[in-house]
Amino acid sequence: MVEHLQHYGVITSKKVSEVMETIDRACFVPDGTPPYVDSPMAIGYNATISAPHMHATCLQLLEENLKPGMHALDIGSGTGYLTACFALMVGPQGRAVGVEHIPELVASSIQNIEKSAAAPLLKEGSLSVHVGDGRKGWPEFAPYDAIHVGAAAPEIPQALIDQLKPGGRMVIPVGNIFQDLKVVDKNQDGSLSVWSETSVRYVPLTSRDAQLRGW
Q1: How crowded is residue 214: how many other Cβ atoms within 10 Å of its Cβ?
Q2: Which BP terms from GO are recorded (predicted)?
């Protein structure tokens, strides 16, 4: 899978390729699902696990903000795959936090992580996954050097901007029908620089009830 993404120029970073080789996607997809196909997959509760090329894109965009000792927040953490990748990058001195509003997905994601190379970080406490409304972030371990949002918001939630550290970067899909993957850099003076990386199609960042109803 990683070689395929390198071949097509999606992965150019050695660090990202190492992390995606270490955190086995097979631990994170539903049983009977082919784990290494480059497409999103349903994980129940009207949620998906993103395609490997999107995970690779987001990891590369955030790589400089996922150095050892840094704090990372993964909103809509789903299966826990990307949260585990973050944890490996920031290491035991850092902090990787997943927030997911479907309790059953939080429980299964913890089981997934326990089967993966990130298990020691979960046990030691530098990696954690919480039930919560991702639109509000997770203030306990803020500010964050890196924030990833795995669902599309109509606009960037203010709580996430507030929890982004000066010098930090957030990657978030923004839009309704048509969405752009936005890269939000917070400058040292607190101002934001925002640019679009690519057009994307994500499930909406919404309430638990709306998601379970199918929006």
Answers
A1: 6
A2: methylation; protein repair
Structural tokens at position 186: 């917070």
What CA–CA distance (Å, rounded) separates 72 from 91?
11
Task: Confirm whether 50 is a catalytic residue.
Answer: yes
Mind listing the pLDDT tens digit for each residue in 125-153? 999 999 999 999 999 999 999 999 999 99
Domain of residue 9 covers: 1-213
Q: Which of 50, 77, 109, 126 is catalytic?
A: 50
Task: In whole angstroms, give the CA distance from residue 164 to residue 120.
Answer: 26
Cβ–Cβ < 8 Å for 36, 111: no
Structure tokens at 182: 């936005």
Residue 181, classified by CB atoms within 10 Å of its CB into exposed (0-12), middle (13-18) or buried (19+), is buried
* Nearest 10 degrees: Cα torsion 209, 179, 34, 14: -120
Radius of gyration of the chain (CA): 16
CATH of the domain at 39: 3.40.50.150
Spacing of C-alpha 50 from chain mean position: 9
Q: Which residue has the tokens 């901007």?
A: 161
Smallest CA-to-CA distance from 38 within 83, 8, 59 is with: 8
As for how many domains the chain has, the answer is 1
Task: Please tell me the predicted confidence (pLDDT) of residue 215.
Answer: 56
Mean pLDDT of the chain: 94
Distance in angstroms (rounded) separating the CA atoms of residues 43 and 3: 25
Exposure on the CB side of residue 114, measured as CA atoms within 13 A? 8
